[in-house]
Amino acid sequence: MPGPHPFRRAAESKDLDLLAETLREDVVLHSPVLFRGFEGRDTVATVLTHVSATLESFSYTDELAEGNTVVLRFKATVGDRELEGIDFLELDDDGRVRELTVFMRPFSALNAFNEQMKARLQASEG
């Protein structure tokens, strides 16, 4: 069985440069809270930088891979809320992430995550 996908290794080590390298130039990130996706490597890398800073005690607990699909299950905390989720990666033929869809639960933790992300993204724009 091959080792962990480079996206997982980069996220676990918080190596944001390596994380960006695992993404296609035209990658799309589907957030658990926004209808529209984030598009493009630079934009997605910036969003993931804020996600990394928002999620505490982040760790992947499982990885499933078949063909061009990788599913990474994770646990983290946001403030006093425990959160779990899935990063669903759709890869191109070179193994780079073409689409990343993030699922999170429970709703109370997702709300806490959303509030912190909004504050971070607004601060980075202003």
Would you kindly provide a written description of the structure presented here, covering whatever features stand out?
This protein is α+β, with helices and mostly antiparallel strands. It has one domain (6-117): Nuclear Transport Factor 2, Chain: A, CATH 3.10.450.50. It is built from 4 helices and 6 strands. Strands 2-1-6-5-4-3 form a 6-stranded mixed sheet. Helix 3 (41-54) crosses helix 4. The chain is globular, with a radius of gyration of 14 Å. The termini are far apart. The mean pLDDT is 90.
Q: Which helices and strands, and how do they pair?
A:
Blueprint: H1 6-13, H2 16-21, E1 23-30, E2 38-39, H3 41-54, E3 56-66, E4 69-78, E5 81-91, E6 97-105, H4 107-125
Helix pairs in contact: 3-4
Specify the biggest β-sheet.
6 strands, mixed
| Average pLDDT level | 90
The geometry reads as globular
Q: Which strand order does the major sheet show?
A: 2-1-6-5-4-3
Order of helix and strand elements from N to C terminus: HHEEHEEEEH
Helix content: 25-40%
- Overall number of domains: 1
Weakly predicted, low-confidence segments = none
Which class do the helix and strand fractions yield?
alpha+beta
The top level CATH class name: Alpha Beta
CATH topology: Nuclear Transport Factor 2, Chain: A
How large, in whole angstroms, is the Cα Rg? 14 Å
| Strand fraction | 35-45%
Number of strands: 6
> Distance N terminus to C terminus?
46 Å
Number of helices: 4
**Level-2 CATH architecture:** Roll
